[in-house]
Amino acid sequence: MCISTPVFRKTVLAFIFIFALILSGCTKQDAEEAGDESTEAAAPDRGDNSRAESAGRDRGDLPELTTGEAAALAYKEARKWRSDAVLWYIMPTSPDLRAGDNDLAWSWSLIYANPGDDKTFIALIKYGRITEAKEQTHVVREIPVPDDLPAKAPKVTLQDAARAIHKSGGSEWETPLCVYIVENSYQRFRGQATWDCLAASTQTLFTVDGLSGKVISIRDYKGTEIAPEAARGRPLAKNSERFKMARFIFGFFEAMDQGKYDAGLSMMDPALAGNKQTRDMWKQSFKGLSAVRAVSVFQEDPRKWTEGRPLFKAVIYAVPKSGDQSGGWDLGENTRFISLVPAGAGWKIAEIATGR
To answer: Which pLDDT tens digit goes with each residue over 64-87?
Structure first.
């Protein structure tokens, strides 16, 4: 697949790295809270895979889709384009905090090819709906379609790939940034369905076989092959602290979503949580929601910080209960600016604001 030249091939992996640096909130709770991740990733049966079994999959009113659900939705559009459409590329562009456990993402990008010509088709999904579906005018297929390539959905899901990575040296507290691709820029796997996944905290790239679910390559950011033992011992990147801070913010909204209001309030600075009356107001604000989760958390430029406090821009998806107008939450996306202050070895939320 290329953009009339090999540009697309050469930029796919670079995009993953850039995407990971931007999407600093794609991590999950500390390993001790995440449960047992030691089970070997097992590829589901070939086919639709539209209802992948996954841990913690109770989504309530939240419009997230699994790998199979996103592929099934996009495949319907691709079949209108070509009856022999084959999935060529899929990326969760906004994965859930626990995508490695529940296989969910808020938005997906999928590209399809077909054996008859070099044309490709793109489908974009956001909040459970197709937002764009069209033939691409510049991106074309350059290699033959493999005979064993699943047409509808990946045989190995995002969840399967993440679990395999955790077993092969990836940090269990981090959900890797992944892309399923056939026309890989890495010649060794070109023409083979794989999940290329970046553990951004250590800048380590894992390649998972798209049919077997096994890790078949581990590389550092320079492209040098390394062993699983070396991957486990790699130092954290200089910017890894912001990943942990973003994870902390994700965890706050997850606690509130689960009705753990006291736990959520304990993550606030005492000056923000306030006295009993203020704490009750906070609780009432979140009790008025049937669901609330962080979609993305981006660290703002340090020049926007106040008194040196790290500032994050968070997109929060909220579902107010019928008739409840408390808390100032809109149905769907809500933007909040959240600043943190150090507290012992961790952080506390010092401010939650609607504007900046």
So the answer is: 999 999 999 999 999 999 999 999
Of 239, 253, 268, 353, residue with least CA distance to 306: 353
Greater confidence (12 vs 237) lies with 237
Instruction: State whether 219 and 341 are in the same domain.
Output: no
The values of phi and psi at residue 101, to 5°, are -100, -40
- 3-state class of 229 per DSSP? helix
Rounded to an integer, what distance in angstroms lies between the CA atom of residue 95 and that of residue 129? 15
Kindly compute the dihedral angle of the four CA atoms of residues 27, 31, 33, 39, in this order, to the nearest 10 degrees.
100
Q: Which of 129, 8, 133 is nearest to 82 (CA)?
A: 133
Domain interval for residue 247 = 240-353
Distance (Å, whole) CA 250 – CA 245 = 9
pLDDT for res 32 = 30
- Which pTM value belongs to this model? 0.80
Find the CATH number of the domain harbouring 262.
3.10.450
